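G., the chain you wanted modeled:
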Amino acid sequence: MSSAATISSPVIGARPTDRTGVAYEALPLEQRTDITVEELERLSLPATAELYDGRVVFKMASPLHAEIQSNIIIQLGNYLEQRPIGALWTDAHFKLWPEREDRARVPDVSFVVTERLPQDMLHYPAMAPDLAVEILSPTDNFFAVMDKVDEYLQQGSKIVWLVIPQKEEVLVCTAEGKHSVRDILTAPELLPGLQISLKKVFARVKTETAQ
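Predicted structure as tokens:
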């Protein structure tokens, strides 16, 4: 998960009207608390953003974060080329709560098995991915990110990987429990035969954090 940040945005939309039908004063995007998933889909935003109870929260990725994300994608992509059992996405929005129009989450990496792929690929799917990957940034609140991990699991994700660059480890989270991995990352129930080298995932961590 990249660091959340507020980005100055132009005034977009307007507040709900009062009883007389007069619209409230239009507010900048980052000050609004009434954004819906439908509106978020239509907006041209300067960065990836999640929706928390009608409030837009931007995800700001550092180069190191982006490289770790790419390293995971490369290894997962190589696996799926040999075993095309689903779709692999980066920064895809998910409407985890189908009944809530004011919430959407964006894992850094996600995987959905073929049988569950949405027919509509143009709008945010009302589902949780089978695998969600979040990369912890130095400025992230660990407990807040763990709350997000629990959201994925509660809404149907089979596995969540919380990538912790500072420790060069991945916290593997399932409904049954959590454990840390520091060498080879696997997911036998969901991705049989997969082996992700964390040495390759974290190849540049030491040089970047030492500067």
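Residues 61-209 form a domain with the tt1808, chain A fold (CATH 3.90.1570.10).

Shout if anything looks off.
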